[in-house]
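Appendix B. Raw example, untouched.
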Amino acid sequence: MSNRFRNLPLSYKISGIFVLANLFIFIVDISLLFGINSMSVEMEMAYQDNRHLNELTEALDNVQSAMTDYLNSKSTDSLSDYYISEQTYAELVGELTVSITDRAYTRMERNIRNMSEEYLSEVSQTIEAKRGRNVEKYRVHYEDASKLYEYIKSYIRSLNEERFLSNSEKYSALARNFRIFEVFALAVMFIVLLGSAVVITRITRALIYPLQALAKSADEVTVGNLDAELPKSTGNDEIGRLTTAFGKMMVSIREYIEKIRMSMEKERLMQEKELMMETHLKDAQLKYLQAQINPHFLFNTLNAGAQLAMMEGADRTYEYVQTVADFFRYNVKKQDELVSIGEEVDLVDNYIRILNVRFSGDIHYDKQTDERLLKVKMPGMILQPIVENSVNHGIREMGDKGHIFLRVYRDDDRVCISVKDNGKGMTPEDIEKVVGGKWKYEEQKGDSNGIGMDNVIARLRLFDDRDDVIHIYSEGIDQGTEVVINLPYNNA
């Protein structure tokens, strides 16, 4: 190695070696590519004869099949198929040799061509006889054509086998040469690569070794191993300074991650405590709100049932008492669990039946429900208190002119439940007070079950965790009132 080369910068040396090595490899690759392409073409041509004979056999079968189909169906489509297959077969037969030589392959091809021409003539006469409805003539030609068909297939099969044996020997010789060529190419490539690797390794070892150690540590850090052994600095050059900086960075990262872990652990514990306290608070609020049940309504209802039992027969009494029993059984069972809208609607039905027994059918009640929404969940004892307020504070004094209409429908991703009456109505100020929980009816007097609108609204807001769960509409005094609840649809 000359002094001039030794004095070149390391980047020049490495670049020169790579350029020369790649140039030599490129020249070798081009040479090998030309050789491989040439041998590939020869191997591709080895079985060209067999492919041609296979195409000839397939075309012969198509002619025979088309002829048979026409004889059986005598349709225009089958005749068209025959002409197409006959033309294809004739073109392939025309490629066979007609020269007279001593080679067995040539003689067999000439015989196949002669028999094929005779076969096509017989097939054509068979078709013409069939079209002329000469049964005896087309039968004779059909039998002759079928015999020639079998002879031709036998000849093609024999020639194909002979060609295949000959081509296989040729292909085997080409394959052996190709393998020898492959071994030679691999040897040349190996020598070139080995020589390049040895030269480059000797020149760059001093530079690459510290970089390898640094890369190994970086790989360990990449997969999450922050405790990987840090490489030692080998000097004050660029690599040494990079190694020192990497070590300091890793120490800082470890300390920072430990601080984050401790902070996240404290935050997680605080969130768990906060969530637990919030859950207990909501549970306590629900239990407190659901515990506000006034037994006064129960006593009045049971008294009405007793009076009806004395005045009427057992059937209506049984129906009434059964309705009352279902009503209060629902109250007892559903206070601390979610129910379906359908169950709440059934409770309203029972409540209206009870009132109509007590007040001689003065309350008119209609409902319109979407059956697909009745399985959506909601808190228990919501609809009955709303209907109760409509009766007590809306239509009680109207006699038999009072009307309550209940509707269940869907609005986008919300389920709406509307309770509407034609009673006294409400002023905007009263509506604002009720929705804001700042005004209560005198619930402990009369036939109230003790669950006021403030209770209903509070439980709905706890259930849905939003404020706009209920809306009250009224156009004014004596214009009726509509209470609309909206619930999430995705809890079915």
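End of appendix B.
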